[in-house]
Write a structure and sequence with these properties.
Helix content is 76%, strand content 0%. By secondary structure, the protein is mainly alpha-helical. This is Tetratricopeptide repeat protein.
């Protein structure tokens, strides 16, 4: 009897061990998938969750697979929906998969999904920390469609339910929610709470770094990102954040190396590669952007690929091809995915097409379209591109380095060039170099340097005025008009009185340069010039001439 009892105890113990290790393995695999998603290893995460579904086609496993498609840089709503529906087929009451489908709606721009998410949480009786967390995550996932207040409410309840075993990502998602509310102090506090709990602290340091970047505290940002890389040199998102930092500071070579590292430590998922192609484009590394896009173009079903190709076409001056790709994107993408930046790009493409259009009526229509669509992007305060400066380039306002080097120089210019080369952020040196180029009548040098100044200090109006003057002296009147108009738009209301004479000249210059091509605009602008300075004789003469 004793032997039988011992044998039964062993059987029970062995059975319990099988259950324990099976559950332990599933838990570990789930954690591996979550870590892969956080590390921008989406192909690895998808493979991980696909294997979990193959071993156990449970509602939960289908949810985690579907959620991976939502977490990638460009969500794949079709594959996510397919996975969530399979989860609901496995368990029609699955709150997680209900949340997944509501998240897809939210991602597509349907704000009614917020109340759906709230109802799902209510139906769950708020007992499950994971349901609360995933509801909150859904409400922070999309930049333009979110509800951070509700997310914060759910996250605090999730943290309360989890008690002593709170995952780090509960806290850093709480930080993300506070970022959406633009409360950086509370966001930082949440990240600080995540730090001691995180298995990979690089994840939290990277978020802290990007929070500092959002606050334009650049040195603290760099310090935090460097901590992330020191903690885990293979954590891909840290290099992506560092690339954004170096792009901001126009350190293009460094940004390219950051992107090479990001590529090395992320994975070959086509959507991750698409994100890398976008980052290369932002870094003005069009060759690498095109190379990656060409490599993955046929592997991606999302129409976003046509938009990125349109950007690359535009950068190469292939305006007809850019228009064709943009038109394809707009035709295939859901309306909610067409952003102000896309309309801005359509405007720039129209301006490019206008350059070679010989039919006067068509040329005028294209230029009007260009101004209207670029105005949409500017009104939305979109910074995807420097819209006015792009119009200047299209108008022929670019100056090559060889043209600059071929122009007049002197010891002062050469010394200042070295100073700027040593520190591209030295606005004082840039100002002196631009002025020195002007004094030497090296107008191409002045144009390039004032452009750099306007990029470094985009709200400093005098840079645009000086740029307009340099273009005018270089006889590039179209570019001069755009630069003067940018100056007029950048002068703040409180600064008008102190800048009346300069503004009067800018208005006069645009009027004079427009008198043959756009008489209506010329009349409007010369009138504004005289409002600012009624004694300005050149404006008086022009006003008489065009109002005969």
């Amino acid at each position: 009897m004793k032997d039988i009892m011992i044998m039964n105890v062993k059987k029970i113990a062995f059975g319990a061990a099988v259950v324990f290790f099976s559950n332990f393995t599933i838990a570990q695999t789930l954690q591996d998938g979550i870590i892969s998603v956080d590390s921008d290893k989406f192909a690895q995460a998808k493979n991980n969750f696909t294997q979990m579904v193959a071993k156990d086609p449970s509602a939960e496993n289908y949810f985690y697979l579907g959620n991976t498609y939502l977490r990638q840089a460009e969500p794949d709503f079709t594959l996510a929906t397919e996975s969530f529906n399979k989860g609901l087929a496995a368990d029609r009451k699955s709150y997680l998969n209900q949340l997944g489908l509501a998240t897809v709606k939210l991602g597509k721009g349907d704000k009614n999904a917020i109340s759906e998410i709230q109802k799902i949480v209510t139906d769950s009786r708020e007992k499950d920390a994971e349901v609360l967390f995933r509801a909150a995550e859904a409400l922070t996932l999309f930049e333009k469609n979110n509800s951070p207040d509700l997310a914060i409410q759910f996250l605090n309840k999730a943290i309360e339910r989890a008690k002593k075993d709170v995952p780090a990502y509960y806290y850093y998602t709480l930080g993300d929610a506070y970022r959406l509310k633009r409360i950086p102090g509370d966001a930082m506090s949440a990240y600080d709470k995540a730090l001691p709990l995180a298995k990979n602290k690089a994840s939290v340091y990277t978020r802290i770094g990007t929070l500092w970047m959002a606050a334009q505290q650049w040195q603290q940002a760099k310090t935090s990102i460097e901590k992330a890389i020191a903690t885990d040199p293979t954590y891909a998102p840290a290099y992506k954040a560092l690339a954004a930092y170096d792009i901001k500071y126009q350190e293009n070579a460094k940004a390219t190396q950051d992107l090479i590292n990001y590529t090395k430590y992320a994975d070959e998922d086509p959507y991750t590669q698409l994100e890398i192609a976008k980052l290369y484009f932002t870094n003005e590394d069009y060759a690498n952007s095109k190379m990656i896009l060409d490599k993955i173009f046929d592997k991606i079903n999302d129409p976003i690929k046509f938009k990125l190709r349109a950007y690359v076409n535009y950068a190469d001056g292939q305006y007809a091809e850019a228009k064709q790709n943009m038109d394809t994107f707009v035709a295939q993408a859901e309306k909610s995915r067409v952003q102000p930046a896309d309309q801005g790009l359509q405007g720039l493409i129209a301006a490019g097409l206008a350059k070679t259009e010989t039919d006067t009526a068509k040329k005028t229509a294209l230029m009007n379209e260009a101004q209207q669509k670029v105005a949409i992007a500017k009104a939305a305060k979109d910074e995807t591109m420097k819209w006015d400066m792009e119009l200047v380039k299209i108008a022929g306002g670019g100056a090559s380095q060889s043209a600059v080097d071929a122009g007049p120089t002197n010891p002062q210019i050469e010394a200042l060039k070295k100073q700027v080369a040593a520190n591209a952020q030295d606005s004082d040196a840039l100002y002196k170099l631009a002025t020195a180029y002007q004094d030497a009548k090296n107008w191409n040098g002045a144009i390039v340097t004032w452009q750099k100044m306007s990029t470094l200090l985009p709200d400093w109006a005098p840079a645009y005025y000086s740029l307009g003057y340099a273009y005018q002296q270089a006889t590039n009147n179209d570019a001069a008009k755009i630069a003067y108009e940018k100056y007029i738009a950048t002068v703040k209301p409180a600064e008008v009185e102190a800048n009346k004479q300069t503004l009067a000249y800018a208005y006069f210059a645009v009027a004079y340069l427009s008198k043959d091509s756009d008489p209506t605009k010329a009349k409007d602008y010369v009138a504004k010039s005289l409002q600012l300075d009624p004694t300005y004789q050149d404006a008086v003469k022009l006003n008489t001439e065009i109002n005969k």
